[in-house]
Amino acid sequence: MKISYYPGCTLKTKAKNLEDSALASLAALGIEVEELERWNCCGAVFSLADDDLIHQVAPVRDLIRARDAGADKLVTLCSQCYNVLARANKLMREEEEKRETINLFMDEEVDYHGEVQVVHFLDLLRETIGWDALREQVKVPLEGLKVAPFYGCTLLRPAEVAVGGGDRGAPHVLQDFLSALGATPVRFSAAEECCGAYEVLINPVEGMRRAGSVLAAAGESHADAIVLSCPLCEYNLGRKQGDIRAQVSGIPDIPVFYFTQLLAIALGLDASAGRFELNMASARKLLQDKKFVEAPATQV
Amino acid sequence: MPNVQKETEADLIPIFIMGKRYLVPESLTIMKAIEYAGYQFIRGCGCRGGICGACSTVYRKAGDYKIYSGLACQTVVEPNMYLTQIPFFPALRREYDYETMEPVAESIYQLYPELFRCVACNACTKICPMDVQVLDYISALKRGDLEAATRISFDCIQCGLCASRCMGELPQYHIAQLARRLHGGKLAPRAEHLRQVVESIAAGKFADVMEELKALPVDELRKLYTERELEPAMSDEQWRPSNNAGL
Q1: Nearest residue on chain A to B152, judged by CA atoms?
Q2: Model confidence over A160-200: pLDDT tens digits?
Q3: pLDDT single digits (tens) B129-165
Q4: Which domain does A256 fall in, by range?
Q5: Are residues A9 and A113 in the same domain?
Q6: Final residue of a domain: which of A86, A121, A156?
Q7: Residue B94 Cα, gap to closest chain A Cα (Å)
Q8: N or C: which end of chain A has fewer CB within 10 A?
């Protein structure tokens, strides 16, 4: 079985810490993936207009590239990319008329019918390794680390593409993942809420209010940190956290990690694999305080 | 119009230039066929060697919905081609201060935010007469990869056909040129051997040879030039001139 890897634009720039920690972890786990040789931006947001098929062309083109590369699965890390690719794939599998229109428009490619399976990295771990086997691979159990699992919108909605293998109850993939690493997932009332998304551009005040309420809920859960899989959520909850705290009262100082960064540390990889310099400063400090990683050698 | 149509009918084929039918010799390039038909180029024609990008042509074939493109100086006519020259296509080229510009993708995003209007339809790549993977370099820039954009767009001859087809209204070729300038001038490693040669020249390596040449009478100078030793067409990389003076 061949697994292609779709990084997405942000993982090559602002979210290198998501990509690098994930790829290092996969290598340590012995799972082979191959980045698509050619890929384009997926579009970042799935177009909901029923007759707007042109915005399906970008993700479908990536799916075709994966199919043509001989892949059975296309794995992604960014929640937004996952959502767009998975929904476009679903459209190509299930909506015959739209599929035909798109295939006719893309007349230089072999017709696509949804042959590739789009999987999120969390589901790849769950399906390919499984939580028990992952637990056995953990070299640095994250004992005593209380983590708020943040799903946000696009890992769970709509239900047809939700991560976790299709069970319809409360989501627990991130909790299962965290438990396998030896960490303690906490009950977190805002786990499935919106981080504010692109409001940060259009209506920053409302965006901050939204992100602030997520951060406040994480504080109330007494978590040491938040984990997530989305660069946009990380931006709103992590990078902008200082700005939010300056304007909204009751916002905790809480590190935000990509789930793959905790994976890399738990697997015993060198701290450099986590690229923590790209997180807010409190992130690495927390891992050092908990003795999961060593402090970097002081520069002379 | 030259009066040759009667003598070799079999070698003449019909083409349609801006909708009007002409019979032209089948072996001509589009450019020569247009001239054969009586047109004189004042735009839409440049080097005639497939490099300068001035003579982009779009054409269709009878009964075929596809749009084809080519450089008029390089593409041989086919029967029932419907064609025209696109000597210019308007595309916004931003002004910038190269010296103060950071060689990062954000510099490009600021000047050309329309980059993100790309929907990956691939019309740019399909129309490119140089077979540049235009969509791929636009995609590379979206993920901040100036090196890849430079490499992928390297064969671009700035003809502008990509911009003519873009539903996102991007000026792709201007964007790529900026990427190449930023990468080539500010990111790519300097060529060490070039620096050494320039230094040696500045230090007077060719000063004596130049003085000798400048002292020669014009006739002798002309003789030296016309009788200079040329590299044979089929020589390999080991070829060296027999007289190395001045090199």
Answers
A1: A38
A2: 999 998 777 789 999 999 999 999 999 999 999 999 999 99
A3: 999 999 999 999 999 999 999 999 999 999 999 999 9
A4: 130-289
A5: yes
A6: A121
A7: 24
A8: C
